[in-house]
Every structure is written in C-alpha cells, then in structure tokens.
Design goal:
The chain is 38% helix and 15% strand. Strands 1, 2, 3, 4, 5 and 6 form a 6-stranded mixed β-sheet that branches. It has 6 helices and 6 strands. This is Killer toxin subunits alpha beta.
C-alpha cells in the first residue's frame, strides 16, 4: 500500500492486520515472544496509522498481541486456522507459512497450490476482495531437508505471486 507522504493521519485507513502462519509468526524464538509483529505494528503506528492486530491467538509481551499462528502448523492447517479469523475482516494479512511443510517434506511439489487456496479463501470471504496480502518466502532453515525443499517452495511462491499480480491481485 503506497501512502503519499503528504497524507495526514486522518486520511490514512485503519489497518486491521492478521498475522497468519506458524511459529515464526507466533514469535517463537524471539526474546519477547512478539517476533516481527511488534516492530511492524510500531513502524506503522509511527507513520500515523491506526493499527489493530487481529486473530484468535495471543502471544508475546506487546499490548495488541492478536494473531492467527500455531507452532508446527503446515500450510493446510494454516488454512483451517484462517477460517476463525475471517470474521475480523482484516484489511491486511501477513503470511509466513510453509517451513514445517519443507522440514517434514510434505508434498512440496504442490505447496504453491495449497498457499493459493489460502489466498482464495481470504479474497473470497465477504467484504475482503480488496484485502492486501503480504506473502513471505520461506526463511532459511538449519534443517537439511527443509533447506532443499525451501528452494522449490520459494520458486512456487514467487510464481504464484507473479500470476496473481498479473491477474490484478
């Protein structure tokens, strides 16, 4: 979402952000349990946005700690968990998912299609056709199997985002 620097806080839309994924999104391994969520929220608030993190799960020491992330979740499970947060009608969904699929070697050749189902669920939900989705590639992993599968998964995620961008998403 490009925001002109001359835009006042009153002109900026309220952001209902759904952090969606597994342990990385939940904040596992971070000293505060917030992971990237608090720095993201703080940066947007500093820029004058009214931010509300949404989701059915809670973790970390931040005040607005809502998210939809479950440690160990694979992409198909993340899709199931998403259903509980669609009622919040997030305006932004930040997704990091697939590391567990990569580490466990779960149908890597179709991970992009499983992610496409998540995106279709978001955009197909009532009043969410224009939701901004930020899909992360898979972060580096120390797991040998995961590291190899990450290459294939990231290629599929990049292709998926290119296809969606070409179709106007």
């Amino acid at each position: 979402m490009a925001v002109p620097e001359t835009m006042t806080a009153a002109d900026k839309p309220e952001l209902r952000i759904l952090p969606l994924g597994a342990s990385i999104v939940f904040g596992v391994g971070s000293s505060t349990g917030n992971g990237f969520r608090k720095p993201l929220r703080d940066a947007l608030r500093y820029d004058g946005f009214d931010v509300n993190m949404v989701g059915t799960r809670h973790n970390g020491d931040m005040q607005d700690w809502d998210n939809e992330a479950t440690s160990g979740a694979i992409v198909s499970e993340i899709r199931s968990y998403l259903q509980g947060s669609l009622a919040y009608k997030p305006s932004v969904v930040v997704i990091n998912g697939g590391t567990n699929d990569c580490n466990r070697n779960i149908d890597i050749n179709n991970i992009g299609e499983r992610m496409r189902l998540i995106l279709n669920d978001i955009w197909g939900a009532p009043d969410m056709a224009n939701t901004c989705v930020m899909l992360s590639t898979i972060l580096p992993t120390a797991d040998a199997t995961g590291a190899l599968n990450r290459i294939t998964a990231n290629q599929q995620y990049r292709l998926l985002t290119e296809q969606l961008a070409a179709s106007g998403k």
